[in-house]
Design brief:
Helix content: 10-25%
Structural class: alpha+beta
Largest sheet: 7 strands, mixed
Number of domains: 2
Distance between the termini: 73 Å
Strand content: 35-45%
Number of helices: 4
Radius of gyration: 25 Å
Length: about 170
């Protein structure tokens, strides 16, 4: 996932728009994230004073499972990032800033590792197939999005049955 910047860096242009479709070939990464191979990267590179800054947006689709009804579905996610592009990275200096720094090598920037990191960071902890998903019945297991449950509505937690006796007086 190389972005070629040599012509831009040597020109008088102030900004460069980028729209690229990438294919991830890392099978281990794809299996861990349940990602579809195609990723859309769009962004813009700016020359600001003596530095070069990249604003990027990653759009990807993954195979997910609803946290309420357990139905599999495809989810599209977008995530944004900003990075500073440097000719030399000083890796001996420990910096605690959250700034993303990428090295320009031979007029190119390799985005593969930062895209993988941004995908990992943007993966949802829980996903819903739709906002008003009703889930499944905890008693009979029927998907409440498609049919009505025939269970009794007065199901209670057996640990609290003794408390009902207090209300009888």
């Amino acid at each position: 996932m190389l972005i070629r910047l040599s012509k831009f860096l040597s020109s008088e242009q102030i900004s460069l728009k980028i729209n690229e479709n990438f294919v991830i070939d890392d099978e281990v990464f794809l299996s861990k994230t349940h990602l579809h191979k195609n990723i859309v990267f769009s962004g813009e590179v700016f020359k600001v004073d003596e530095s070069v800054v990249m604003n990027g947006k990653i759009e990807y689709t993954l195979a997910d499972e609803c946290a309420r009804c357990l139905k599999p579905f495809d989810k599209t996610i977008e995530t944004n990032f900003e990075a500073v592009l440097l000719q030399q990275l000083d890796e001996t200096v420990e910096d605690e800033s959250d700034e993303i720094r990428l090295k320009i090598t031979d007029g190119c920037v390799d985005l593969e590792e930062i895209i993988k990191q941004m995908i990992y960071l943007s993966l949802p902890m829980k996903s819903l197939c739709k906002e008003d998903c009703k889930g499944i019945c905890p008693n009979c297991g029927v998907n409440l999005n498609y049919e009505e449950c025939k269970c009794e509505n007065n199901l209670t937690d057996p640990r609290f049955d003794k408390l009902k006796d207090l209300l009888k007086d």
